[in-house]
Design brief:
Blueprint lengths: L1 E3 L2 E7 L7 E5 L9 H12 L3 E6 L1 H4 L8 H16 L6 E6 L1 H13 L3 E5 L14 H5 L5 E6 L15 E5 L9 H14 L4
Parallel strand pairs: 3-4, 3-5, 5-6, 6-7, 7-8
Antiparallel strand pairs: 1-2, 2-4
């Protein structure tokens, strides 16, 4: 558990690895047990990374509706700062859906060397004219987006130049392609020169 300015967050961390730290956040309505997050955790742990999955305070408190963006970001930054006291090496920030948005918005402040977004919610289905592309564009480090071809929040073809986008045969949940997602993340991180 980590105390943050907006409540207590829960961190699920495995054994430390020497390559660096990967911190992953969950989606707005889901938790840290999502199949893609578990698959990425297993793959990157096997590759020698320290991986921590962060459960936001609103979920720890038992609420399903997400907190406002400013509160999500404040909690995330507090957890990352706590983890950085224990783990050395480059920081990779990321998460699925809303967790990826948080990682993008806080990448510079957190000191991330790279950002990984699983099922980035580019456009809300009910208001597709509202794009969140600016959150991706604001990131000054390498960004990977793994996106389902049938994602109702925007398919791989909807992303502009900037992030590396990997398409998988799935929807927003990425649950049927979790192993493929994890392989894409592992291969992409292998190709980066992170410091």
């Amino acid at each position: 558990m980590v105390d943050t300015p907006v409540g207590t967050a829960r961190v699920h961390a495995g054994p430390g690895g020497g390559r660096g730290l990967v911190v992953l956040g969950h989606g707005a309505g889901g938790g840290v047990e999502a199949r893609d997050l578990l698959a990425v955790t297993a793959r990157l742990s096997a590759d020698g990374w320290s991986v921590a999955r962060v459960e936001q305070p609103y979920r720890v408190a038992g609420r399903r509706a997400p907190a406002p963006a400013a509160q999500l970001d404040a909690a995330w930054l507090a957890v990352v700062a706590s983890l950085r006291e224990r783990y050395d090496g480059p920081l990779v920030a990321g998460g699925r859906s809303s967790g990826g948005r948080v990682a993008c918005r806080t990448a510079a402040t957190a000191g991330a060397s790279a950002v990984v977004c699983l099922a980035f919610p580019l456009r809300p289905p009910r208001t597709p004219e509202r794009s969140r592309a600016d959150e991706l564009a604001a990131v000054d480090v390498p960004v990977l987006v793994v996106q389902g071809e049938r994602d109702q929040f925007g398919g791989p073809e909807d992303f502009a130049a900037g992030p590396t986008v990997v398409a998988v045969a799935d929807d927003h949940s990425l649950r049927r392609s979790a192993v493929v997602v994890a392989d894409a993340v592992g291969r992409w991180l292998e190709a980066q020169s992170l410091q």
